UniProtKB/TrEMBL annotation:
Catalyzes the deamination of adenosine to inosine at the wobble position 34 of tRNA(Arg2). Homodimer. This is tRNA-specific adenosine deaminase. Binds 1 zinc ion per subunit. GO terms for biological process: tRNA wobble adenosine to inosine editing. It catalyses: adenosine(34) in tRNA + H2O + H(+) = inosine(34) in tRNA + NH4(+). The gene is tadA. Zn(2+) binds at residues 47, 77, 80. The lineage of its organism: Bacteria, Pseudomonadati, Pseudomonadota, Alphaproteobacteria, Acetobacterales.
Length: 151
Protein backbone atom coordinates (compact mmCIF):
# COMPACT_ATOMS: atom_id res chain seq x y z
CA UNK A 1 0.00 0.00 0.00
CA UNK A 2 2.95 2.31 0.59
CA UNK A 3 3.79 2.30 -3.13
CA UNK A 4 0.15 2.84 -4.14
CA UNK A 5 -0.08 5.84 -1.81
CA UNK A 6 3.17 7.22 -3.25
CA UNK A 7 1.68 6.93 -6.73
CA UNK A 8 -1.49 8.67 -5.50
CA UNK A 9 0.55 11.57 -4.11
CA UNK A 10 2.44 11.90 -7.40
CA UNK A 11 -0.86 11.90 -9.30
CA UNK A 12 -2.12 14.76 -7.11
CA UNK A 13 0.98 16.84 -7.92
CA UNK A 14 0.05 16.45 -11.61
CA UNK A 15 -3.50 17.66 -10.95
CA UNK A 16 -4.96 14.17 -11.13
CA UNK A 17 -7.38 12.67 -8.63
CA UNK A 18 -4.96 11.07 -6.13
CA UNK A 19 -5.43 7.38 -6.74
CA UNK A 20 -2.46 5.07 -7.08
CA UNK A 21 -2.17 1.38 -7.88
CA UNK A 22 0.48 -1.31 -7.85
CA UNK A 23 0.24 -4.79 -9.34
CA UNK A 24 2.27 -7.50 -7.61
CA UNK A 25 3.09 -10.97 -8.89
CA UNK A 26 2.75 -14.12 -6.78
CA UNK A 27 6.16 -13.50 -5.18
CA UNK A 28 5.28 -9.91 -4.26
CA UNK A 29 7.45 -8.32 -6.94
CA UNK A 30 6.13 -5.16 -8.56
CA UNK A 31 4.94 -5.73 -12.12
CA UNK A 32 3.56 -2.23 -12.62
CA UNK A 33 2.71 0.90 -10.68
CA UNK A 34 0.86 4.06 -11.69
CA UNK A 35 -1.23 6.95 -10.56
CA UNK A 36 -4.29 8.27 -12.34
CA UNK A 37 -3.49 9.89 -15.72
CA UNK A 38 -7.00 10.84 -16.87
CA UNK A 39 -6.24 14.56 -17.26
CA UNK A 40 -2.76 14.09 -18.67
CA UNK A 41 -3.87 11.63 -21.35
CA UNK A 42 -7.39 13.06 -21.76
CA UNK A 43 -8.54 9.46 -21.43
CA UNK A 44 -11.38 8.73 -18.98
CA UNK A 45 -10.21 5.11 -18.75
CA UNK A 46 -6.70 6.05 -17.58
CA UNK A 47 -7.40 5.14 -13.97
CA UNK A 48 -4.42 3.84 -12.00
CA UNK A 49 -5.89 0.33 -11.84
CA UNK A 50 -6.45 0.15 -15.59
CA UNK A 51 -2.94 1.38 -16.31
CA UNK A 52 -1.24 -1.23 -14.12
CA UNK A 53 -3.38 -4.12 -15.36
CA UNK A 54 -2.71 -3.16 -18.99
CA UNK A 55 1.03 -2.83 -18.35
CA UNK A 56 1.21 -6.17 -16.53
CA UNK A 57 -0.47 -8.14 -19.31
CA UNK A 58 1.74 -6.40 -21.86
CA UNK A 59 4.85 -7.43 -19.90
CA UNK A 60 3.64 -10.96 -19.27
CA UNK A 61 2.22 -11.41 -22.77
CA UNK A 62 -0.90 -12.99 -21.37
CA UNK A 63 -4.28 -11.59 -20.40
CA UNK A 64 -4.78 -13.34 -17.06
CA UNK A 65 -3.57 -12.00 -13.71
CA UNK A 66 -4.93 -14.77 -11.48
CA UNK A 67 -1.68 -15.06 -9.51
CA UNK A 68 -1.45 -11.30 -8.96
CA UNK A 69 -2.49 -8.81 -6.30
CA UNK A 70 -3.84 -5.41 -7.24
CA UNK A 71 -3.14 -2.84 -4.53
CA UNK A 72 -5.02 0.43 -4.96
CA UNK A 73 -5.47 3.43 -2.69
CA UNK A 74 -9.23 3.71 -3.32
CA UNK A 75 -12.03 1.17 -3.73
CA UNK A 76 -12.29 0.55 -7.49
CA UNK A 77 -15.05 2.16 -9.56
CA UNK A 78 -17.44 0.11 -11.75
CA UNK A 79 -15.12 0.28 -14.79
CA UNK A 80 -12.07 -0.89 -12.85
CA UNK A 81 -13.97 -3.55 -10.90
CA UNK A 82 -15.36 -4.99 -14.13
CA UNK A 83 -11.91 -4.90 -15.75
CA UNK A 84 -10.45 -6.75 -12.75
CA UNK A 85 -12.91 -9.56 -13.44
CA UNK A 86 -11.92 -9.71 -17.12
CA UNK A 87 -8.21 -9.73 -16.22
CA UNK A 88 -9.02 -12.37 -13.54
CA UNK A 89 -7.03 -10.52 -10.85
CA UNK A 90 -6.50 -12.97 -7.98
CA UNK A 91 -6.52 -10.55 -5.07
CA UNK A 92 -7.56 -6.95 -4.46
CA UNK A 93 -6.24 -4.85 -1.59
CA UNK A 94 -7.58 -1.31 -1.34
CA UNK A 95 -7.27 1.64 1.01
CA UNK A 96 -10.19 4.04 1.30
CA UNK A 97 -13.76 2.90 0.84
CA UNK A 98 -15.74 4.88 -1.76
CA UNK A 99 -19.45 4.98 -0.85
CA UNK A 100 -20.24 7.31 -3.79
CA UNK A 101 -18.27 5.78 -6.66
CA UNK A 102 -17.01 2.42 -5.48
CA UNK A 103 -18.22 -0.82 -7.02
CA UNK A 104 -16.64 -3.48 -4.80
CA UNK A 105 -18.08 -2.94 -1.33
CA UNK A 106 -20.50 -0.19 -2.41
CA UNK A 107 -22.83 0.50 -5.32
CA UNK A 108 -23.17 -2.50 -7.62
CA UNK A 109 -20.74 -4.65 -5.56
CA UNK A 110 -19.66 -6.30 -8.80
CA UNK A 111 -17.45 -9.10 -7.41
CA UNK A 112 -20.34 -10.39 -5.30
CA UNK A 113 -22.96 -10.55 -8.04
CA UNK A 114 -24.13 -13.99 -9.14
CA UNK A 115 -23.16 -13.23 -12.73
CA UNK A 116 -19.63 -12.06 -11.84
CA UNK A 117 -17.00 -13.44 -14.20
CA UNK A 118 -14.49 -13.80 -11.39
CA UNK A 119 -14.32 -13.18 -7.64
CA UNK A 120 -10.93 -12.08 -6.33
CA UNK A 121 -9.98 -12.28 -2.68
CA UNK A 122 -10.71 -8.80 -1.31
CA UNK A 123 -9.17 -6.86 1.58
CA UNK A 124 -10.40 -3.30 2.08
CA UNK A 125 -9.55 -0.50 4.48
CA UNK A 126 -5.75 -0.88 4.42
CA UNK A 127 -4.30 2.49 5.49
CA UNK A 128 -7.82 3.78 4.98
CA UNK A 129 -7.35 7.04 6.89
CA UNK A 130 -4.21 8.02 4.98
CA UNK A 131 -5.76 7.20 1.62
CA UNK A 132 -8.96 9.03 2.49
CA UNK A 133 -7.09 12.09 3.73
CA UNK A 134 -5.25 12.38 0.39
CA UNK A 135 -8.57 12.49 -1.45
CA UNK A 136 -10.20 14.84 1.05
CA UNK A 137 -7.34 17.34 0.86
CA UNK A 138 -7.26 17.19 -2.93
CA UNK A 139 -10.97 17.93 -3.30
CA UNK A 140 -10.93 20.64 -0.62
CA UNK A 141 -8.14 22.37 -2.55
CA UNK A 142 -10.02 21.92 -5.81
CA UNK A 143 -13.22 23.43 -4.38
CA UNK A 144 -11.23 26.34 -2.94
CA UNK A 145 -9.93 27.15 -6.41
CA UNK A 146 -6.57 25.42 -6.09
CA UNK A 147 -6.87 24.25 -9.69
CA UNK A 148 -9.53 24.44 -12.33
CA UNK A 149 -11.78 21.47 -12.87
CA UNK A 150 -11.57 20.47 -16.55
CA UNK A 151 -14.89 18.63 -16.36
Amino acid sequence: MVLALQQARMAATRGEVPVGAVLLDAQGSVLAQAGNRVEELQDPSAHAEMLVMREAVRQRQGRRLADCTLVVSLEPCPMCAAAMAHFRVGRLVFGAYDPKGGAVEHGPRLPYRAEALHRPDIVGGVREQEAGDLLKTFFQTLRAGGRSDPA
